[in-house]
Design a protein that fits this description.
Elements: H1 9-21, H2 30-39, H3 42-54, H4 62-69, H5 74-85, E1 88-90, H6 91-98, H7 104-115, E2 120-123, E3 133-138, E4 141-147, E5 157-162, E6 165-171, E7 176-180, E8 186-192, E9 198-203, E10 215-220, E11 223-228, H8 239-244, E12 246-252, E13 259-266, E14 269-277, E15 280-288, E16 291-297, E17 307-310, E18 322-324
Parallel strand pairs: 1-2
Antiparallel strand pairs: 2-3, 3-4, 4-5, 5-6, 6-7, 7-8, 8-9, 9-12, 10-11, 12-13, 13-14, 14-15, 15-16, 16-17, 17-18
Helix pairs in contact: 1-2, 2-3, 3-4, 4-5
Length: 325
């Protein structure tokens, strides 16, 4: 058995061939030597692990292997394991090592260590043996998260947390950034609308909820350690639903280069719109029942809105413009 699973015959034959070949190569990679030992039979494994230890080679998996083989006490194995975990450790290695601890002192020490953990935890979420989830911890709770599902260098999502509670979530491939108030309620969203324009939406707290991949409770010996649980099928952010709960939203205007429009909403219906250019207000629109009624414009930038545009129904589609100065 290796890691609790029976080794298939084909894998055993390959492993035996490699194990027999290891002594021929003086510069065999230390990780390969350790894996070779893990696949060896009990007597050969003990000999190879002892030789690995004598050469002062180091690898995070050695703690579990040495503890199983009786080459280390639980205290020694724990100290060895932590020397790697202080920087980074995989979830799989953490779980396989933690279950080997049976002594109360060792379990208590690991509990205290994880409760105050300040390193990086990695996880393989799809079983392809490559880590694609990376979690930075501060005082035992997630502080930052990054998930690259396909390991293509483009994150599927990232998050920043405050003691394990998400504050912002970014979905780069969909160009969405989400900010939280009282979690899981959203207070701001930056996204592209259906026409491909950047849209910034502000919401009142506790009006619209959306749950990203959450830090879920993961039980380890003697302690509660929070590990993010990736949810593959996330609820999509629907533009119309989120606008119906919005206080306001901002969008770029095609009227001038650098111009923006800020819409104020009530129950998702526009009430006013402020037009700015390079941060300066140059026009305002007032709505009734969600439709524009009047628009005042400062055409010369003197902060006097000398032009008023009036809107109405264009039954005959004549596109007439009415202005008063």
């Amino acid at each position: 058995l290796w890691n609790g699973r029976e080794i298939p015959p084909d894998v055993r034959r390959i492993a035996d061939f490699f194990i027999a070949s290891v002594p021929r190569y003086a510069d065999t990679d230390s990780e390969l030597q350790l894996y070779a030992a893990l696949f060896a039979n009990d007597e050969e494994r003990f000999r190879m692990l002892k030789a690995y230890q004598a050469k002062n080679m180091r690898h995070p998996l050695f703690a579990s292997a040495a503890l199983k083989a009786g080459l280390m006490t639980q205290k020694e194995a724990l100290e060895y394991f932590i020397s790697f975990a202080d920087t980074s450790i995989s979830l799989e290695n953490l779980e396989s090592f933690a279950v080997l601890l049976t002594e109360d002192d060792a379990k208590s020490f690991l509990s205290e260590y994880l409760t105050a953990y300040n390193g990086i935890l990695t996880a393989d979420t799809d079983g392809d043996l490559d880590a694609n989830l990376f979690v930075g911890y501060l005082r035992g709770r997630p502080q930052s998260l990054r998930w690259d599902k396909d390991n293509d260098g483009i994150d599927d999502w990232t998050a920043v947390c405050d003691f394990g509670v998400p504050q912002t979530v970014v979905i780069p491939k969909e160009k969405i950034e989400i900010g939280y108030g009282t979690y899981p309620y959203i207070t701001k969203v930056t996204m592209q609308n259906s026409e491909g324009h950047a849209l910034f939406i502000a919401l009142a707290d506790e009006q619209f909820s959306w749950t990203p991949p959450l830090p879920q409770l993961k039980e380890n010996p003697g302690c509660d350690f929070y590990v993010p649980q990736v949810r593959l099928n996330l609820l999509q952010i629907d533009e119309s639903q989120i606008l119906s709960a919005a206080l306001s939203y901002d969008i770029d205007s095609a009227e001038y280069s650098g111009a923006k429009i800020h819409f104020s909403l009530l129950n998702g219906i526009p009430q006013t719109a402020d037009y700015t250019r390079d941060g300066k207000l140059y026009a305002q629109t007032f709505f009734e029942n969600g439709l524009p009624v009047t628009r005042t414009v400062d055409k010369d930038g003197d902060r006097i809105f000398e032009t008023t545009e009036t809107y109405g129904y264009d039954i005959d589609n004549k596109m007439n413009v009415t202005e008063a100065e």
